[in-house]
Amino acid sequence: MDFDLSEEQRLLKESIDGLLTDSYDFDARKKYQKEKGGWSKAVWGKLAEQGLLGLPFAEADGGFGAGAVETMIVMEALGKALVLEPYLATVVIGGGFLRHGGSAEQKAQHIPGIIDGSKTFAFAQLEKNSRYDLGDVATTAKKKGAGWVIDGEKFVVLNGENADTLIVTARTKGGQRDKSGIGVFLVPANAKGVTRKGYPTQDGLHAADITFTGVEVGADAAIGDPENGLALIERVVDEARTAMCAEAVGAMDESLKSTVEYLKTRKQFGVAIGSFQTLQHRAADMFVALEQARSMSMFATMAADFDSAKERATAVAAAKVQIGKSGKFIGQQSIQLHGGIGMTQEAKIGHYFKRLTMIENTFGDTDYHLRRVTDAGGLV
Amino acid sequence: MDLAFSKEEIAFREEVRAFFRDNVPPETRRKMVEGRHLSKDEMIAWWRILNKKGWGVSHWPKEYGGTGWTSVQHYIFNEELQMHPAPAPLAFGVSMVGPVIYTFGNEKQKQQYLPRIANVDDWWCQGFSEPGSGSDLASLKTKAERKGDKYIINGQKTWTTLAQHADMIFCLCRTDTNAKKQMGISFIVFDMKSKGVTVRPIETIDGGHEVNEVFFDDVEVPVENLIGEENKGWDYAKFLLGNERTGIARVGVSKERLRRIKDLASKVESNGKPVIEDQGFREKLAACEIELKALELTQLRVVADEGKHGKGKPNPASSVLKIKGSEIQQTTTELLMEGIGPFAAPYDVHGDDGSNETMDWTAQIAPSYFNNRKVSIYGGSNEIQRNIITKAVLGL
């Protein structure tokens, strides 16, 4: 049992923290947001230069063969700086599908572009009626010759507006909510029949609603078994959830730090408001919530090594519950303790609150994951 | 980072588990499971079994009878003990006064007291709180006046846990009334059978008798019963209170209680099916289990950190343990009561020691819920814990 970072991991943490300290303060973030697509190609290039975009890929595929802990380190740092660049969509999710389900040809075709920063990905999964159920898929992929024809609508596709390649879940057979008959397809974003309507999201990222109308792809577009893709989807989404837990811990950590800083500097009635016990105890409760969240983020991360797939999934769901609760508490109380200034777009704190709020509602909210833990028979 | 225990640690866990299985008297275990009070004899009998095995004062230095275990081994031992469940060693002797004596006491005191603490030849109680000094402990008024080779002690202590069983008390007394309040306090130990000591029971809301008021009326105590230096008692008290950082989360106790909730909620029906199948109840249970898992991990982080970097520098996460640990213990007793619903009502008139057990298995459940409200009050209330986080962690 060991919760310390290894020497390499410590260096990784220093490197990403250093990069973001230099290039990602709140003013810089505002500038990046105004760039085309809503994030900075230059920062993305720096992440590539430092090898961060290649971390989780096997050395044979040009990566560093890093594991879940390394992803946790990076995501926590990205959460602290409220990074806009599509690491989750591209490296964690896009990369995850390629690593766990991709053929040698698919890996060779797509991974180098992720690692060198020239290509980004988006995961087109959410549908009008699917909510958090990954197995609820109405979009269809129908066989045509050796290839497939995809029809359907996907919503709130993170980085969907900018991505070069879309990873699309589509039904190859069965009814809308059947667990079997779901495939995962690589679709070039510029393929004929793909229509993207992009927009900024509440937390300053970018997403798109995407319509697929008779989009034709080859047989080589399917990742894994096109009739039994749900297990792969669940696995990759669990990794995305785990990564988001770490991102949320970073955001919570920074929220608490700035709130405590504010309590020390803001004066009312002639004293720093941090001298009021009611505010001190609120901040102490935020610390408790943060440490509980940090513990569960580590738990989900280390669960990646669990033998049982069911235990892995339950651990991630449990972590998402804790992060959802802690994130909501810390987010809301950060605003409350900042008072009026916390309500302004100008102050950084509200942006953490918004990102934490969106994380809670991505890939299953607190209630959804609590039900999953319950249905799995609990944790003890 | 690695969550798994080592092969040696797993073997150790098996050894500890097997020892508890084979050596905890079944009747003691049953009473623990049902949340009943144990008699003094039952507790002492078990502690002597533990001491004979060499595990009675496991965390003491080896020269005084400790085991030399790693932080992880201590963690495993405590968790298995709590989950079995079996009574933990008497904290007032083993975790509190023992370490003060071997750290600050003289050679004679070490020889006189330590072996008797380990074997519970003396039952110790703690004379800290007073009617006017709860969270503000340093305002205590009990006085020890030096007269020749004696201290004359006058005053009153309260919330003295199991003083009705005690042979010895360790007491914070004011020896200098002119000094600033933390400065004039001394740490004095004495015999509870001394002339002038009166113990009066306090009945708590669960109907139990755990705590007492203790009155001192011109109690004569030899000066050699002073531990360490006169007027340095506050330092020893702080040392004592800071000693047990991780045990306080009581993760094993909550785990055991969750098992019991599942067991009992399978036996009580609602809408024609066991309560345990009710979705609302199950979700509350799962929510509690998630909180507990997070706490367990937080505790493991503290334990691993202590193992690696020593106990000198407290991990900031350790202050979470008391707050969350007590909240979860309270939630589990609440869920236990919710599980049996209306059957929580009957009140069992039982003796201190669990004699006269007339009622069935539900009788101790509401009392246990009422009794557990104490856990967020004692050992530094949760509000005091928040003050500690505020100052020590957040720097406010």
Automatic annotation (TrEMBL), chain A:
| Assigned keywords, A-Z | FAD, Flavoprotein, Oxidoreductase
Signal peptide start and end residues: none
The family database entries (SUPFAM superfamilies) matched by this protein are listed as: Acyl-CoA dehydrogenase C-terminal domain-like, Acyl-CoA dehydrogenase NM domain-like
The entry assigns this protein to a family as follows: Belongs to the acyl-CoA dehydrogenase family.
Per the database record, which ranges form the Acyl-CoA dehydrogenase/oxidase N-terminal domain?
Answer: 6-117
One annotated GO molecular function = flavin adenine dinucleotide binding
Matches recorded under Pfam families: Acyl-CoA_dh_1 (PF00441), Acyl-CoA_dh_M (PF02770), Acyl-CoA_dh_N (PF02771)
The cofactor required is: FAD
- What region holds the Acyl-CoA oxidase/dehydrogenase middle domain? 123-209
Name the record gives this protein:
Pimeloyl-CoA dehydrogenase small subunit
UniProt xrefs under NCBIfam families? pimD_small
The record's annotation in Gene3D superfamilies points to: Acyl-CoA dehydrogenase/oxidase, N-terminal domain, Butyryl-CoA Dehydrogenase, subunit A, domain 2, Butyryl-CoA Dehydrogenase, subunit A, domain 3
Q: What sequence ranges are listed for the domain Acyl-CoA dehydrogenase/oxidase C-terminal? A: 228-375
TrEMBL record, chain B:
Q: Which molecular-function annotations from GO does this UniProt entry contain?
A: flavin adenine dinucleotide binding; oxidoreductase activity, acting on the CH-CH group of donors
Q: Which residues form the Acyl-CoA oxidase/dehydrogenase middle domain?
A: 125-219
Domain of life from the UniProt record: Bacteria
Q: What is this protein called?
A: Pimeloyl-CoA dehydrogenase large subunit
In this protein, which residues make up the domain named Acyl-CoA dehydrogenase/oxidase C-terminal? 231-394
A Pfam family cross-referenced in the UniProt record is Acyl-CoA_dh_1
Which cofactors is this protein said to need?
FAD
Organism whose genome encodes this protein = Bradyrhizobium jicamae
Q: Which residues form a coiled coil?
A: none
Transmembrane spans = none
Alphabetical UniProt keywords: FAD, Flavoprotein, Oxidoreductase
Domain annotation Acyl-CoA dehydrogenase/oxidase N-terminal: ranges: 7-119
Q: Does the keyword Flavoprotein apply?
A: yes
Query: Which family, according to the similarity comment?
Result: Belongs to the acyl-CoA dehydrogenase family.
Q: Where is the signal peptide?
A: none
**Any one Gene Ontology cellular component term annotated for this protein:** plasma membrane
